[in-house]
């Protein structure tokens, strides 16, 4: 038995996977609170994640224990997936010094711009890291904390990412892996090591060797679970904890995206596109994050800040639920009768518009309907991902199939819109908790259950009933509508 944990923005998910039967036998979930302000602040207290971990795993174990063949003592390993980029700072007593600033926090836009300038501008910054520092990455959060809380800054003893914090709590080992580390903004993605020159520009008072975690390759056993936590859940004390990784890296494993040609699209709070490569790509546009993967390759990635969170704005405005939102969107025609939304409710990363606001365009007295508003939001969110997919294609990445995950993937209409806008086949997975599944599979890999490609073949299954192929007439219509969207977008600059 293996456990996968996904500590996301909205909550923590836990799954229990039966290795022998090759299926999930227990699922649990616990929600997170979110601290948010109009200035772009998005924070959570790290201890909330521990509470959610305990709740979600307890629920999953309770479900699994209804099966006669299951016992907590059969659990062999745990793999942790965590939201990327979050800044967790611990003091001399291993207590958080401040809330964790999250991936979606745009309060640090000024600090990010200043850091890039100190590094010599965009080109020189990119050359030093192999990746462009973006607002939302960990580096600018550390700059922000140094500026606003200098006394607390001097008490920093450990700098972690969210999944590192959970691993540290589970094992007592202060480590991380290349995939999540590559989203910090002070990690060299080509050399796969911390960059001392860049880190010195961010935190000159701190000793990099002491405050940053030890780097491990993805298949490594990070450690074993602490005895008190093992006793709490009824586990044996030899339960292995794998290195884990960022949610996108674990989502790649959980969707079988460990070879070239596949694109994973996540329709969650944010939207992401990522594809595996066996070597770092050269001459990428800065908007493509050339991350390392959590299976010892690379994972070029596009992240847009506003996805299902944008839909939620319309859902709340109209006082409807998700099902009603989808039903209304279905009633509107392709193109929403000219209504277009620039859905930048929380700024945007791709394209880089951290301080931009959302806009509704093309309205008149005849097309201002609830149905058009719902469909326009769905279409416009898809266009932000199309913008990213075009960057992938221009960089030479193969995009023969899109494997879509996240809450938005449940909408048949949205999947078809994606297929038509991208002119690419779209398919879902039978197990929709891809990041948690990726964590469980990585734990199997670390525990010697087999090679990763064999494990993905055994545990990752496409849902044949979910396939959506592009309709050529719709593809042609959406191409014109997408050009309208781009015209609005370019008018912002």
TrEMBL record:
Which residues are listed under the site Important for activity? 6
CDD domains noted in UniProt: ASKHA_NBD_FGGY_BaXK-like
Q: What class of enzyme is it?
A: transferase
According to its UniProt entry, the protein's GO biological process terms are: D-xylose metabolic process; xylulose catabolic process
- Please list the residues that make up the active site: 247 (proton acceptor)
Where are the coiled-coil regions? none
SUPFAM superfamilies associated with the record: Actin-like ATPase domain
Which HAMAP family does UniProt cross-reference here? Answer: XylB
What is the protein's known function? Catalyzes the phosphorylation of D-xylulose to D-xylulose 5-phosphate.
For this chain, the family text in UniProt reads:
Belongs to the FGGY kinase family.
The protein, known as: Xylulose kinase
Q: Which organism is it from?
A: Rodentibacter genomosp. 2
């Amino acid at each position: 038995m293996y456990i996968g944990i996904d500590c996301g923005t909205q909550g923590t998910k836990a799954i229990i996977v039966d290795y022998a039967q090759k299926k999930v036998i227990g699922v649990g979930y616990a929600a997170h609170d979110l601290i948010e302000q109009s200035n772009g602040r998005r924070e959570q207290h790290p201890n909330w994640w521990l509470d959610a971990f305990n709740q979600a795993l307890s629920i999953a174990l309770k479900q699994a224990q209804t099966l006669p063949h299951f016992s907590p003592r059969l659990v062999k390993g745990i793999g942790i997936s965590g939201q990327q980029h979050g800044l967790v700072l611990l003091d001399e007593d291993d207590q958080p010094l401040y809330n964790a600033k999250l991936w979606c926090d745009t309060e640090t836009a000024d600090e990010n711009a200043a850091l890039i300038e100190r590094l010599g501008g965009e080109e020189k910054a990119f050359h030093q890291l192999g990746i462009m520092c973006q607002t939302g990455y960990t580096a600018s959060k550390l700059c922000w904390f140094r500026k606003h809380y200098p006394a607390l800054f001097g008490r920093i003893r450990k700098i972690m990412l969210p999944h590192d914090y959970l691993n540290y709590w589970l094992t007592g080992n202060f480590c991380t892996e290349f995939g999540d580390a590559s989203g910090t903004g002070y990690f060299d993605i080509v050399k796969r090591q911390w960059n001392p020159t860049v880190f010195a520009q961010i935190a000159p008072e701190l000793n990099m060797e002491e405050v940053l975690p030890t780097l491990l390759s993805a298949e490594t056993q990070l450690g074993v679970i602490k005895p008190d936590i093992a006793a709490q859940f009824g586990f044996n004390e030899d339960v292995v904890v794998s290195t884990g990784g960022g949610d996108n890296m674990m989502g790649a494993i959980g969707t079988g995206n460990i070879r070239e040609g596949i694109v994973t699209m996540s329709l969650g709070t944010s939207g992401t596109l990522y594809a595996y490569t066996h070597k770092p790509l050269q001459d990428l546009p800065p908007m493509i994050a050339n991350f390392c993967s959590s299976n010892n390759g690379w994972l070029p990635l596009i992240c847009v800040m506003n996805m299902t969170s944008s839909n939620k704005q319309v859902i709340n405005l109209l006082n409807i639920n998700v099902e009603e939102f989808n039903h209304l969107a279905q009633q509107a025609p392709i193109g929403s009768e000219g209504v277009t939304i620039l859905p930048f409710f929380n700024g945007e990363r791709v394209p880089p518009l951290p301080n931009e606001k959302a806009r509704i365009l093309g309205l008149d007295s005849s097309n201002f309907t609830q149905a058009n508003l719902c469909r326009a939001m769905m279409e416009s969110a898809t266009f932000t991902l199309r913008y990213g997919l075009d960057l992938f294609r221009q960089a030479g990445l193969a995009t023969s199939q899109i494997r879509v995950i996240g809450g938005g993937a449940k909408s048949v209409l949205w999947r078809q819109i994606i297929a038509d806008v991208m002119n690419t086949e779209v398919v879902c997975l039978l197990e929709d908790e891809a990041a948690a599944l990726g964590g469980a599979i990585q734990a199997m890999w670390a525990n010697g259950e087999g090679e990763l490609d064999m494990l993905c073949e055994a545990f990752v299954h496409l849902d044949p009933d979910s396939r959506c192929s592009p309709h050529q007439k719709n593809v042609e219509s959406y191409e014109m509508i997408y050009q309208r969207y781009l015209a609005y977008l370019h008018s912002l600059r």
